[in-house]
Amino acid sequence: MAFKILAIDGGGIRGLYAAYILKRIHEELGIVFSKHFDLIIGTSTGSIIASALAINYPIEKVVMLYEVEGKKIFSPNSFSLNGLYKSKYSRRYLEKILNKALGNKTLSDVQDTRLVIPATDIANGQVFVFKSSYLDEFIRDKNTKIVDAILASCSAPTYFDPSRVDNYLLVDGGLWANNPALVGLIEAIGKLKIDKDQVKILSVGTGIGHRYYEIDGAEDRKWGLSNGWQGSKLVDTILNLQSISSENMVKLVLRDDQYLRLNFNSDVKLAMDSLSILDSLKSKADQTFTYQINNIQSFLA
């Protein structure tokens, strides 16, 4: 029997693309994600969606979160200088709406599936992975609120302040696992001892952007953080590259019938806080679902 993993990329507001595709899958194919998938993993914005699905919070309400609350979540801090002086945004409003939606549920409250949320421990220079209590040895996170794990995973440098969870100082898991499919695969075959040939991964992205920096005049540009690298654009680039590299590695390890990637490409860069692309994200999601419906249905059978 196949061991089924759902992996959801990071990407800020672009999470609407992933959430909308999953909404279509739920509504039209009747998939109850916590029952269908043996492990659900999500990074950054993907951790919001993954956590909601793991505790059976309605996916249509997750879609509304992006559409309705996105503008307030990405309301700029005063005098942040586009993330150069302090973080561009406060996480207070995101925390408020997550608490309203998910309440005080902890990772030990996840019962129907396994939930994994990557973050980054910047105090110790280590990767950090939140896990629900699906193995007896997993005791560190059992009392951690799901909301706290999400906020840590969403704390992208320059966008949000680091998040303190117990004795750890954490930021966005996207720095090393923006596409968490590879992490999910390693968890399955490493910790859970699943035969690699039994693993199937549905991986949902949030778009891959291009043309982050112009080559014309690059030699004459001053490559400081604020001018040449342009602050948060560097973070966007790193997360973009991590998603691509993870996809390539998973494709090398798994057969074509074990891995289905749903994503789209953009001719321009895709920022995590671009509220002007919400309608475009839904349109891209509809297009992906329409063209891939037969592949999705067959893969999930």
TrEMBL record:
CDD domains: Pat17_PNPLA8_PNPLA9_like. A motif (GXGXXG) lies at residues 10-15. Pfam families: Patatin. The keyword Lipid metabolism applies. Residues 6-185 form the PNPLA domain. A motif (GXSXG) lies at residues 42-46. Keywords: Hydrolase, Lipid degradation, Lipid metabolism. GO terms for biological process: lipid catabolic process. InterPro entries: Acyl_Trfase/lysoPLipase, PNPLA_dom, Teg/CotR/CapV-like. One of its GO terms (molecular function) is hydrolase activity. This is Patatin.
